[in-house]
């Protein structure tokens, strides 16, 4: 009887939520959307593996701005270039917040750069952008670090002597070493056991965070305590990563020279000393550890996955690979490494790289946003603190902005004369005040790594190119290709 009574209470509470949700003045004028069920909201209407596809289907009925309930979490979903641009750029301040993600906050606390809000976000983002610029973000010094890493990357592929190999860890190590050079002031040997372990932990946690189970934690935080196994695995992985970062910070502290910072950690430690008398400072050890972890993860996973996806695409479309190689041979030749100055002379290669980023659509849902104050958007009232999902997939595949959005087509970025052209709907790094602050670094890495690899190797598999699948691994957050092996044939 007690169990029946408890279930009835839950049902009544759910029904009250259902019937009263539209009566509130606060939420009564929100965008339209599918009718939610008690407690679970619209979960039955959302494909947990490809939620962006479900949202696009819903938008056919409810339009590009709609309200969806993910469990009890009310979210405004924005679809298409016009709606996303209007919110994130034209009303940038209002849509610049980040929602609380219980799983992540329970693991890392409310610290760091990516998911912070208010003064913490403002101070850490401004400081980080400034520090990275001082160490060459978009400048020649970082270009030289990438070129140095390219030598190690090429050697790793040469070791395989044209035999089949999995490029995942090779590319991951190369990309990670670039951010390590900036943040830690050092690179690691590809065979370094600790480095290999850290990359494995990073990849594993990103994979875990992209599973439907992680999304259930976000919608029903009580599951973290009721079913903690999944959470414990992520926590242990993150704990090991943070212990590594903490040791490096301690070593930096012991050898710090205040007027001669070597890397990002040194810059942060110097700022900590300058603000030691400020009780409200955001420059403290917890924020340093979390921000370094943010940079390490973001600086490795997305660029490494884009490189891996890009090579798969070029193996499927060998004619495109050969055309890029022809442009590389004409502009760069075989006697030197590529430089960023070469990009403006290589419109076709630049177009292919942009199309790779558009087509692979690494983060289809985008990182969640949140309104910072009550606002009127397209005639609808959206209260402060509302989760907002500006779906990047809907922008990168917007049929009104791309000639053949579902096909890989470098012509999306070429004019009638074969010159590179900009498309405002190209926003794989998002846009507005929360645009990825590593955009400049990522673009530099992609150009230099791809050009160097195709300058030195032709990539193929034993599989017929027509049989190569470009479908991603099912994931709610980050898209990645299915595991594959390739042959790097020296040119």
TrEMBL record:
Name the Pfam families on file.
p450
Q: Primary place of residence?
A: membrane
Q: Name one GO cellular component term.
A: cytoplasm
What does the UniProt keyword field contain? Endoplasmic reticulum, Heme, Iron, Membrane, Metal-binding, Microsome, Monooxygenase, Oxidoreductase
Lipid biosynthesis in keyword set: no
InterPro entries assigned:
Cyt_P450, Cyt_P450_CS, Cyt_P450_E_grp-I, Cyt_P450_sf, Cytochrome_P450_fam2
> Tell me, what is an example of a GO biological process annotation in this record?
aflatoxin metabolic process
Q: Cite a single GO MF annotation.
A: oxidoreductase activity, acting on paired donors, with incorporation or reduction of molecular oxygen, reduced flavin or flavoprotein as one donor, and incorporation of one atom of oxygen
Q: Which residues bind heme?
A: 436
Q: Show the CDD domains listed in the entry.
A: CYP2 (cd11026)
Q: Which cofactor does it need?
A: heme
* Protein's cellular compartments: Microsome membrane
Family from the record: Belongs to the cytochrome P450 family.
According to UniProt, the name of this protein is: Cytochrome P450 2B4-like
């Amino acid at each position: 009887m007690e169990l029946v009574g408890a279930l009835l209470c839950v049902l009544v509470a759910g029904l009250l939520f259902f019937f009263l949700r539209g009566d509130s003045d606060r939420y009564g004028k929100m965008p339209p959307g599918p009718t939610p069920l008690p407690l679970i909201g619209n979960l039955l209407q959302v494909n947990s593996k490809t939620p962006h596809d479900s949202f696009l289907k819903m938008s056919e009925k409810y339009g590009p701005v709609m309200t969806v309930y993910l469990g009890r979490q009310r979210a405004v979903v924005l679809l298409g270039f016009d709606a996303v641009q209007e919110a994130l750029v034209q009303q940038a301040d209002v849509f610049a917040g980040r929602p609380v993600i219980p799983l992540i906050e329970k693991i890392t606390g409310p610290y760091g750069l990516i998911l912070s809000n208010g003064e913490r976000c403002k101070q850490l983002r401004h400081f980080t952008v400034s520090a990275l610029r001082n160490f060459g973000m978009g400048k020649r010094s970082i270009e030289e670090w990438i070129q140095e890493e390219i030598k190690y990357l090429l050697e790793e592929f040469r070791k395989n002597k044209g035999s089949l190999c999995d490029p995942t860890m090779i590319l991951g190590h190369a990309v990670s070493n670039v951010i390590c050079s900036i943040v830690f002031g050092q690179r690691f040997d590809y065979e370094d056991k600790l480095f290999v372990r850290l990359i494995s932990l990073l990849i594993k946690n990103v994979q875990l965070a992209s599973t439907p189970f992680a999304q259930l934690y976000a919608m029903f935080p009580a599951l973290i305590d009721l079913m903690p196994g999944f959470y414990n695995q992520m926590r242990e992985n993150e704990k090991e990563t943070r212990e590594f970062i903490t040791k490096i910070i301690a070593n930096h502290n012991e050898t710090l020279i205040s007027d001669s910072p070597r890397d990002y950690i040194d810059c942060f430690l110097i700022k900590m000393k300058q603000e030691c008398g400020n009780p409200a400072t955001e420059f403290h050890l917890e924020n340093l550890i979390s921000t370094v972890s943010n940079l390490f993860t973001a600086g490795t996973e997305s660029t490494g996955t884009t490189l891996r996806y890009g090579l798969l695409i070029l193996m499927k479309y060998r004619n495109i690979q050969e055309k890029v190689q022809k442009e590389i041979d004409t502009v760069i030749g075989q006697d030197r490494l590529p430089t960023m100055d070469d990009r403006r002379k290589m419109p076709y290669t630049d177009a292919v790289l942009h199309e790779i980023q558009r087509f692979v659509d690494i983060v289809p849902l985008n990182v969640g946003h949140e309104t910072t104050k009550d606002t009127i958007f397209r005639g609808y009232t959206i209260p402060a603190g509302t989760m907002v999902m500006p779906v990047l997939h809907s922008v990168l595949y917007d049929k009104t902005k791309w000639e053949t959005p579902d096909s890989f087509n470098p012509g999306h970025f070429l004019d009638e004369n074969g010159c590179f052209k900009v498309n405002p709907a190209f926003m794989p790094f998002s846009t507005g005040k929360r645009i990825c602050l590593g955009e400049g670094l990522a673009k530099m890495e992609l150009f230099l790594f791809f050009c160097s690899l195709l300058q030195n190797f032709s990539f193929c598999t034993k599989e017929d190119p027509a049989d190569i699948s470009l479908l991603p691994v099912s994931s709610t957050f980050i898209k990645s290709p299915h595991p594959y092996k390739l042959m790097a044939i020296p040119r």
